[in-house]
Amino acid sequence: MSSPVPAQAEACGYRTAGCGPKISWFWVLLGTWALCPGSDQRMSSFAAVPLRRKAAIGVLIVLVAWSLTLGLALAGLLTKYTLATLDHLYRATPLPPASSQVVVATLSQADLDFCQKQGISWPWPRQLYASIIEFCQRGGARAVIFDVLYTEASFYGGEDDQRLAEAMRASGRVVLPFFLTRESKGTDAQDQEVLAKASLPIAGLPPPGLTTYQGMTTPIPPLLKAAAALGNVECGPDPDGIYRRLPLVSVFQGCFLPLLSFGAFCHMQAPGGWRFDNGDLVRRDYRVPLDQDGRVLLMFRGPGHSFKRLSIANIIQSEERLKHGLAPFYKPEDLAGKWVLVGFTAPGLMDLKPTPLAPVYPGAELHATLLDNLLQGDFLHTAPSWVIFVWALVLAGVVTLAVLFSARLWVTLAALALLLALDVGGSLAAFRASWWADPVAPGVALVLAFALATAYSYATEGRQKLAIRRMFSRYMSEKVIAHLMSHPELLNLGGERRQVTLFFSDLAGFTSISELLSAEEVVGLLNDYLSRMTDIILDEEGTVDKFEGDAIMAFWGAPLPQDDQALRACRAALRQQAALAELNTHFQEKGLPPLSMRIGLHTGEAVVGNLGSEKRFDYTAIGDTVNLASRLEGLNKFYGTSIIASETTMAECGDGVLFREMDRVAVKGKATAVAVYQPLGLKDGLTPDTVALARDFAEALKVYRQEKFAEAGALFEEILARHPDDSPSQVFLRRCREFQANPPPLGWGGVFRPDKK
């Protein structure tokens, strides 16, 4: 009594009668592994998402990503990253050189130490600063701009202040700073004098974020009166504490007061005629770009020491040496037409600020940078916000299209990488052209859109594609699977008529072989065989329909149309026979019996598609074409051959394969006899003996069909003399002898009528 067979195996139609206990357990072991591929898959909807719906989803994804980015930007959550990106651009991009027209005179720690050794302690007498002014006047400097606050009388007395004031009046080109505060200190005469001397009449509507101050700290009266121009030195950093922008003007008591460098520039080079225009500060055809807070984004010239520096101690000594007829350390004529900024760089004097290019940057050089920008007019413009967010919308839209409408992962990843590179590269190119185009907001929109589109794609088509890949990866080639993933609607229940080439194979006598082996040996033997044969079918881009025990059903031409389907099927069959010969050598080395495989091929129309129920289905082919291919496989046993193909398969192969016609056979279910052929080999691998065999066999078959059996028998004997193992010739020689003894009936027509399948 045989062991019970799983219901799944019975559902697949496995033949178990007479197998005995061993073969029954073989079905038990193997039934759920490979014998019913796809039969336990649950049918889900594989309909492709309509293009219109997908486009609508894409628009929604883009708008959501863009809106989230806009919200993050308005909430200030991107500011930190935007500023850090700007700093990287400052450091990564070659910056324009500093103008030779701007010179920075610095009081460094070395200067303090030198004077200390000379008996001059800090604070210095102000008459020393008078020597700086006199030296610059001697050389013909355009302006001397002090980034030094003189808000208290000199420690050395009023005469010291008067000495400095006299030098300032004599020069007529000295600019002093004042300091605006947000705390009201009341109004005094000095405030009004600053307003009278420093305020700028600027027409137009100012930027909305322009800072308004309530108080002012001014220079002491003697110096205030002697100064040619004045400017504010109060300015704050960006939110992260880094100085990148400086306000050109600020508001105090309804008046516009300039920053120190801008005050010097207006007084010495561009007096009057300024107006606000679309947020910028304009004078005739000269335009200074401002942000909404009235600040100008600096085009730095490099880290500290970008400008020509002079030591204040050496300037003072040079002036004194010139007065005594000695050679100076610096030549005064080197300052002709120069703008000289005087400031402190000694750490203890607290005028060092962080910038994108250096964590410690002299405050005087910040003013020098602004002055140089004003003189050269090479400002760093900021791209309007609407441009940035339109660009963000474009990037989000393109990446969403790539994700939703591309079936290949590498395409979507390449699109993401390309768009990110375009965003960053565009920002870098813009910076080289003196434009700051923030890449952070567009980059965030791009990544958000990619993430949302990918999540949607995975939640819908991604799971569908994963199910398809899992379902068919062992039965179809990668090319076919890729096509199904792009067109999942092909997997809906139902079928279509297609021209296909059917392949059936079976192992001769495998039931008898399996009875001699243990279940483990049968499984191992069959798995090795099926794996090797399946790999060849997939390599030829065929579709494995099912395994029925040791039998394989496959087809070409679906789900992808293939013009060379018959040639692929024949090539696969020939390769399988060669591979089986190698396997048999391996099996014999392991003490296992050799296998013999029979293959049937037929090309014709069949219904191909997912057939079954909503929960259980197979992607398969049905129809008369399938039945004929199965019967052709069985015909091999009558001719001792390993491959038999139909006439249509032979014709579809063209010149790619050499066939010999075997016979005309009355196949069960066919009203007329069909011609059957044996593929002998691919045309490019034939030997002269094989070609001669096909030619001689065709001649003998022709004589045989003329019922000249004695003559035909002689021809077959000649073939066997050269090819003693040619089974078809042996079969026809026996027939010739039988027909000589018992002639065929009238109307025979050379048709073979097998008495069994």
From TrEMBL:
Main location (coarse class): other
Keyword field: Cell membrane, Membrane, Transmembrane, Transmembrane helix
Location(s) in or outside the cell: Cell envelope
Entry keyword Cell inner membrane: no
Pfam families in the record: CHASE2, Guanylate_cyc
Top-level taxon in the UniProt lineage: Bacteria
GO biological process: one example: intracellular signal transduction
Molecular function terms, GO-annotated: adenylate cyclase activity
Cellular compartments per GO CC: cell envelope
CDD domains linked to this entry: CHD
Transmembrane segments: 55-78, 386-406, 413-434, 440-459
Domain Guanylate cyclase: 501-633
Stated family: Belongs to the adenylyl cyclase class-3 family.
Designated name of the protein: CHASE2 domain-containing protein
Organism: Desulfobacca acetoxidans
